């Protein structure tokens, strides 16, 4: 069962990788690629990032840049033309991006390339570091990717049957890393209403949109507290019900800035090997302590992934 599920995810992501490699000159329709892989766009991007080590857009951009480096060495095309093929609108923006990745400007890269003839001549390496092992090759080679996995550092994941959670929420619109602004508004309402003094109240963040496909300014998330069934919803809070069901849970210990990597590992490493598939519910985080209580290295955040 587990091997079959892992095979399903590996084949789905391999199909997406092959499409990207073979269509570098086309704009990515991420929703269509996810649909072809038989995954929802939200879950597809996290699984892709976890298994490949970069997002579809990052892979697409990197392969275009590797192709540009290869063109500099193998052709006499103008740098401006190569820049356009790589998706850059100006020579200047391409030069900045190229230098950041390769250490020298594109013209210098071309001029410094060793010429054939010497026994020890070695061409410049055009491949950029990638955990997946996927690189540009002439002819659109269908690379077989190596799933990014750290066997020596396996996550501890437990399967939990969670009850329905009744939440009082404050909506945040914008980049997820700024959800703290919504938690400040939540505290200003929940404190005077006596909600924070209730026993067993948990602080939760729920995320509605995929940050890889939704503009940052349009991302929706909720800062929330659990509200006892016997308590009236405080004015200013919007009620949200997280459905009961089966969830995969792992605990991240450390700063909030690393939560994205923890989600990527859960969905890209653990999930394909687990024998489970993602359910239709909402993913969320429960914070077991706060920066007001402990140092960033001691923060404990539980990640919950709904399972079919």
Work out the strand percent. Answer: 15-25%
CATH homologous superfamily classification of the largest domain = Regulatory factor, effector binding domain
Mass-distribution shape? elongated
Name given to the CATH architecture of the largest domain: Alpha-Beta Barrel
Report the C-alpha radius of gyration, rounded: 23 Å
Structural write-up:
There is one protein chain. The protein contains 9 helices and 8 strands. It is of the alpha+beta class and about 300 residues long. The chain folds into 2 domains: about 1-150, Homeodomain-like (Arc Repressor Mutant, subunit A, Orthogonal Bundle); about 155-305, Multidrug-efflux Transporter 1 Regulator Bmrr, Chain A (Alpha-Beta Barrel), CATH 3.20.80. An 8-stranded antiparallel β-sheet has the order 1-6-8-7-3-4-2-5, covered by helices on one side. It starts with a helix and ends with a strand.
Task: Detail the topology: elements first, then pairings.
Elements: H1 2-22, H2 30-36, H3 41-52, H4 56-74, H5 79-85, H6 91-102, H7 106-112, E1 157-162, E2 165-173, H8 180-190, E3 203-207, E4 220-226, E5 238-242, E6 245-253, H9 259-274, E7 284-287, E8 300-306
Antiparallel strand pairs: 1-6, 2-4, 2-5, 3-4, 3-7, 6-8, 7-8
């Amino acid at each position: 069962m587990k091997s079959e599920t892992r095979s399903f995810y590996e084949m789905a992501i391999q199909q997406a990788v092959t499409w990207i490699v073979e269509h570098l000159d086309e704009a990515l329709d991420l929703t269509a690629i996810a649909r072809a892989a038989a995954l929802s766009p939200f879950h597809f991007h996290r699984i892709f990032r976890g298994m490949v080590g970069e997002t579809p857009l990052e892979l697409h951009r990197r392969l275009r840049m590797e192709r540009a480096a290869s063109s500099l060495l193998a052709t006499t095309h103008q740098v401006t033309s190569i820049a356009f093929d790589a998706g850059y609108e100006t020579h200047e923006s391409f030069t900045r991006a190229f230098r950041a990745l390769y250490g020298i400007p594109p013209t210098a890269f071309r001029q410094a390339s060793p010429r054939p003839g010497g026994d020890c001549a070695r061409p410049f390496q055009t491949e950029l570091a990638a955990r997946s092992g996927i690189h540009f090759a002439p002819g659109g080679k269908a690379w077989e990717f190596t799933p990014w996995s750290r066997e020596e550092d396996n996550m501890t994941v437990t399967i939990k049957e969670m009850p329905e959670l009744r939440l009082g929420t404050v909506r945040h619109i914008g980049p997820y890393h700024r959800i703290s602004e919504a938690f400040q508004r939540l505290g200003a309402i929940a404190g005077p209403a006596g909600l924070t003094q209730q026993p067993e109240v948990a602080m939760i963040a729920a995320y509605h949109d995929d940050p890889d496909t939704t503009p940052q300014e349009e991302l929706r998330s909720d800062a929330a507290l659990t509200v006892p069934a016997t308590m009236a919803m405080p004015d200013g809070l919007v009620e949200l019900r997280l459905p009961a069901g089966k969830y995969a849970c792992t605990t991240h210990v450390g700063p909030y800035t690393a939560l994205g990597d923890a989600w990527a590992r859960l969905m890209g490493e653990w999930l394909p090997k687990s024998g489970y598939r993602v359910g239709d519910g909402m993913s969320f985080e429960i914070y077991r302590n706060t920066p007001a209580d402990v140092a960033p290295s001691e923060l404990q955040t539980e990640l919950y992934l709904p399972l079919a």
